[in-house]
Write a structure and sequence with these properties.
The complex is a heterodimer.
Chain A lengths: L1 H11 L6 H6 L1 H5 L1 H26 L5 H20 L3 H25 L4 H23 L5 H5 L8 H30 L1 H7 L3 H22 L2 H15 L6 H26 L3 H19 L5 H5 L1 H6 L1
Chain B lengths: L1 H27 L1 E7 H11 L3 E7 L12 H9 L2 E4 L8 H8 L4 E4 L7 E2 L16 E2 L6 H18 L4 H27 L7 E3 L6 H7 L2 E3 L12 H14 L3 E5 L5 H10 L2 E6 L14 H17 L1
Parallel strand pairs in B: 1-2, 1-3, 3-4, 7-8, 7-9, 9-10
Antiparallel strand pairs in B: 5-6
Helix pairs in contact in B: 2-5, 3-4, 5-6, 6-10, 8-9
Classes of the chains: A mainly alpha, B alpha/beta.
Chain lengths: 307, 307
């Protein structure tokens, strides 16, 4: 941000400005809301990127979507109780998400029902409960509107929340990294050497919920899943090493935020969908050209190896 | 036996007679429906004691994105006249009318109003969101409200010819009040210095006000509250506020305030308060009727722009 501001003053002092600057940097130098949006999406990508990679590796890619639905009613109730209040909506979303994640996990571990089935059951109940509470309360202001985030209108409190979520996510991931990776790769081995599997799993689900709640302030509940899963799926086509995948996914998330905001600025399209569509373009490109299992690579393995 | 039956029927008719005044009045009243609170208020003013008005989207509700409930279909089925704004304002009403199977006459209150095409908004900004091309917020000009009242009067007379005298008298009285209101608004606008007649609001609801009274409104959201703003829109508005030194931004009761708050913070314009655009407040709020709403808006505008 400081650097961008510095370049802005350079321009004003009359130096020749390269056209690249006009398109790529000037929007952020000139407008504070663009800088805030960039900081917000970057913080989001830092936390959600690694979480998304673990979700993918654990074959839980759709869990993010289910959790997003589970969170929505909590946030809606928070909104109904105290209006457009950051704290109430965050707390509501966290509570609803945690409860659903915990209950689904408990049922999965205590009964024969698989985790995806119990999660589906609980998030659907949560969603229906939320819709009912909202209807009984009888407000007509469309809640989806309020629940759609506005990345262009991030205030200080929301930015701090996003940064805090990113920080906590990274620190916690560093702590539970080993059991998480082991459980992705060889859960039976982990169970035989350590009891850390179950707690690590629950902590991880908590991280998923936290990042989704952070994401819905910036992008809305449904698009928040996009910045979590799309970069992870794209990164998988470029590397086989888990560390490299995480770094790549996070970088793609950050670039998606930046490019999506630029797209929204120059082409006049809504910013949230623009960001996710850029991430989607990364994914499409990776499916085609990715070095690790991309389509072209599979069709012409020889030629690429020679090059 | 016979005597007992007589007694019973005597009691019943006595009870009926006792309850007759209240019951008869409720039954004799012409049941009509208005789609949103502003229109409902106008119908109440013309219909007076002879009609029972039900409003589908109540005070504080957003009619652009309203989701009808089964009760609404029941209300419609019982109604004799259904008043709608038209011009694409309540896109859900035609389906609801069909679904309810009502035999009520559907009256478009804006019939005869010169619709404002979105392209006619003579600004450098060109809205990407096209909602059938017409701006539905016709009531924001008092002149149009008088057309609404005339349409309502004719429709009520047609549905209930016996009440002609009452409806005509009520309408005349109400039209006089609207004339006074119109003069009041013009007076207030004239008192604002010409170079300060520019305002930022949350969604584009004041096109007719602008055309009738010469105050310039700019909004990041389009005519419908459904459209999401792009970074380009927000940047354009911020640049406009800075360039023209627009003194104040306003919030609305039906749409998301976060974006306008951000714009205010970034430009130093002050927040002039809340304008009531698409819905009234309940009885304790500042805009319980159409006339009160217009008075509140012009007072808020004057306060923020004159000084």
């Amino acid at each position: 941000m400081l650097m961008l501001a510095g370049m802005g003053t350079l321009r004003r002092s009359g130096r020749r400005v390269p056209p690249m600057y006009e398109h790529l940097v000037a929007p952020f130098a000139e407008f504070e809301f663009m800088r805030r949006a960039l900081v917000g999406t970057t913080a989001l990508a830092l936390g959600a990127g690694p979480v998304g990679v673990f979700l993918m590796l654990r074959r839980m890619s759709l869990v993010g979507d289910a959790m997003a639905h589970a969170i929505l009613p909590g946030a809606a109730v928070g909104f109904l109780l105290s209006g457009l209040n950051l704290f109430a909506m965050t707390a509501g979303g966290l509570v609803a998400g945690f409860v659903v994640a915990l209950l689904a996990g408990l049922v999965a571990r205590a009964t024969e029902l698989k985790e995806d089935a119990s999660l589906a059951a609980f998030y659907l109940v949560s969603l229906a409960l939320g819709v009912m509470i909202v209807s009984i309360k009888g407000t007509n202001v469309d809640l989806l509107h309020v629940l759609f985030g506005t990345v262009l209108a991030l205030d200080d409190a929301t930015l701090l929340l996003l940064a805090a979520i990113a920080t906590v996510s990274l620190v916690v991931l560093a702590i539970v990294y080993r059991p998480l990776v082991l459980e992705c790769v060889d859960p039976n081995f982990l169970r035989s050497v350590s009891p850390a599997g179950a707690p690590a799993h629950i902590v991880f689900l908590a991280l998923v919920v936290m990042n989704l709640v952070g994401g819905f302030h910036a992008l809305g509940t449904l698009l928040a899943v996009g910045i979590m899963m799309l970069p992870a799926a794209a990164a998988r086509f470029w590397a086989r090493d888990i560390t490299a995948i995480i770094v790549l996914a996070t970088a793609m998330g950050i670039i998606s935020g930046y490019a999506g905001l630029l797209l929204s600025f120059h082409a006049g399209v809504p910013s949230g969908p623009a960001i996710i569509l850029v991430a989607g373009a990364f994914y499409a490109f990776s499916v085609l050209f990715g070095r690790a299992g991309g389509l072209l690579r599979q069709l012409f393995p020889g030629r690429h190896l020679e090059a | 036996m016979i005597r007992r039956r007589h007694l019973l029927s005597l009691g019943a008719s006595l009870a009926l007679a006792l309850s007759l005044p209240a019951g008869a009045r409720a039954q004799d009243k012409l049941p009509v429906v208005a789609t949103f609170s502003i229109l409902g208020d106008m119908v109440k003013n013309v219909g007076g004691d002879r009609v029972a008005v039900t409003t589908l989207v109540g005070p504080g509700g957003d009619a652009h994105v309203y989701a009808p409930a089964p009760n609404d279909a029941k209300t419609l089925a019982a109604a004799k006249v259904v008043f709608t704004n038209g011009l694409g304002f309540e896109g859900w009403i035609s389906r609801l009318v069909k679904a309810s199977g009502t035999k009520a006459a559907v009256v478009t209150a804006t019939r005869g109003v010169t619709p404002l095409k979105m392209a006619e908004r003579g600004h450098e900004h060109d809205h990407g969101h096209d909602h059938g091309g017409s701006d539905p917020h016709a009531w924001q000009a008092v002149g149009n409200a008088k057309i609404y009242v005339a349409n309502i009067r004719e429709a009520l007379i047609k549905a209930d010819p016996d009440g002609r005298a009452v409806y005509e008298a009520n309408a005349t009285r109400y039209l006089e009040a609207l004339d006074r209101l119109d003069a009041q608004v013009r007076e207030a606008v004239a008192a604002i210095p010409a170079d300060r007649r520019q305002v930022i609001t949350t969604h584009d609801a004041f096109g007719y006000f602008e055309r009738a009274y010469g105050l310039d409104f700019v909004a990041p959201q389009g005519v419908s509250t459904e459209a999401e703003a792009s970074a380009k829109d927000v940047a354009r508005i911020i640049a406009q506020v800075r360039k023209h030194k627009i003194p104040a931004v306003f919030l609305e009761n039906v749409s998301d305030p976060r974006l306008v708050k951000r714009i205010a913070e970034e430009t130093g314009a002050k927040i002039g308060g809340t304008l009531y655009s698409d819905a009234l407040t309940d009885e304790n709020g500042p805009a319980p009727t159409y006339i009160e709403m217009m008075r509140h808006n012009i007072r808020a505008l004057s306060l923020a722009l004159e000084s």
